[in-house]
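Entry 14. Ran structure prediction on the chain below.
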Amino acid sequence: MNLKSGIAKAAGKSSYWFLHNVLKGGTSFPGKLAMKIDPQVLNALAHDYETVIVTGTNGKTMTTSLIVAALKQKYGDILTNPSGSNMQQGIVTAFLAHKQKKVKRKIAVLEVDEANVKMVTELIHPSYYVLTNIFRDQMDRYGEIYTTYAKIVDGIKLAPEATIIANGDASIFSSVALPNKKVFYGFDLDSAQKDNDAKAPVNTDGVLCPQCDHVIHFHDRIYANLGDFFCPHCGYKRPELKYSINKITEQTPNQLAFEMGAKDYSINIGGTYNIYNALAAYSVAREFGLNDDEIAQSFANNKRVFGRQELINYAGKDIDLILVKNPVGLDEVLHMLNTEPDDYSLVALLNANHADGIDTSWIWDGQFEDLNREQIKHVIVGGLRRKDMNFRLEVAGFNPDNMTVAKDNDDLIPQIAKLPTKKVYILSTYTALLALRKTMAEKKIIKAGM
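Output, structure tokens:
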């Protein structure tokens, strides 16, 4: 580490200490400060780490968390960015914040924003890329799914020696020829009809064959553009899977049980999308030499992470705080809510800041109409675009008499306390979620920080 990098590291660590011990927060400023002093500081901080980059549209934070939990079973201390601050400055902060313990194998598992993969790769030289999925998300920032994947590929091309661990059920991930070793994971359910021939709904993104532009078909479609795909025109098909889910045995909003190989696994969280996240983590863990028992134990002990079905108890309510940010993710959360056996109340918070994506038209692609409205005893809408969310739910068939509007979080929190059900699900966009957690921390409902 040269003098410039050393000064940058010292300044960043000092600012991190002050922010977290005096001001009780801050995930990106220390990184920004260090990078201002030395734009190449990440290269110095990460030079002796074996690094795993996790990227894709949905599932990055949960997949990263599950990978870290699994690798700790064998390797102990793992460096990561648990807050989900996944741009370059947040990743620098993760290195600055990490108190390195003595380990035989220095491993970093990093969630990385899709548009930052190239910048991070230039400085870190990763050993593995984990690719979760590509869906339409923040069109104003990422563009179409092919543009998003091109940003990721631009980064991967800088590390041809790295291994790609990719969702084989996403046709886009096998569409570009790369020299890297590739490992694919996906669903290979025992119940699937291998001779089935089905298409995705007409408004599904990413279902054109990358080879011939004809519509892709599915032997078994799991959701959106994911599944056992094939092109009846040119023969393009899903690559061979090294790791797979064979059976789903339980699905509720708070529990998933499934089979991989000959072993049963469970995680304390709901949603089919989280089975994909678990499968991605399993694949990485196996590549790092963990056995099935070690992985199963780490999954069984997994904890909820920031904003990803985070559980909060307040005023006798069991509150499930869930980040939603794009149509596919929203739909999968709505499907998960339909596995809830009890009555519940729903809170929907919609912002349109830069970090959320300023275009909120995606809420019209989410199938709120599919919710079991008999179970939902009351609805609160909030956020900067609460009028848009209120109108969307009215169009979906929700009774305005059972809906209220919260003008801000100081108004929202007392309304939550008065809801008629014990279970409450809060669906929130990113900046609305941050603001709500900040207010809850100020009111001592939750601890400050992430």
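The first strand starts at residue 50 and ends at 55. Will compare against last week's run tomorrow.
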